[in-house]
Design brief:
Layout (H helix, E strand, L loop, with lengths): L4 H26 L9 H33 L1
Helix pairs in contact: 1-2
Pfam families: DUF7220
InterPro entries: DUF7220 (IPR055644)
Keywords: Membrane, Transmembrane, Transmembrane helix
């Protein structure tokens, strides 16, 4: 049996939340190595921006692959 819609939503939300946390931590760790000293708030803001970009990218790729799949039938 496949994954339920509820389980899929929980998985997607967990993926986004974990990705956001990694992004914030990476910003705090990496930016100073390039000479940028940022606050936790700035790191969180940048993480949010990149998280939204990632969600949009993922959605657009999913739709493109779906279109290609349907076109091939």
């Amino acid at each position: 049996m496949g994954q339920s819609k509820r389980a899929s939503m929980i998985e997607a939300l967990a993926n986004v939340a974990i990705g956001y946390g990694i992004s914030v931590a990476a910003n705090i760790a990496v930016m100073p190595a390039f000479g940028y000293h940022i606050t936790v708030g700035q790191a969180a803001g940048m993480g949010l921006i990149f998280t939204v970009i990632s969600i949009v990218r993922s959605y657009m790729l999913r739709r493109a692959f779906n279109w290609l799949h349907l076109r091939g039938e």
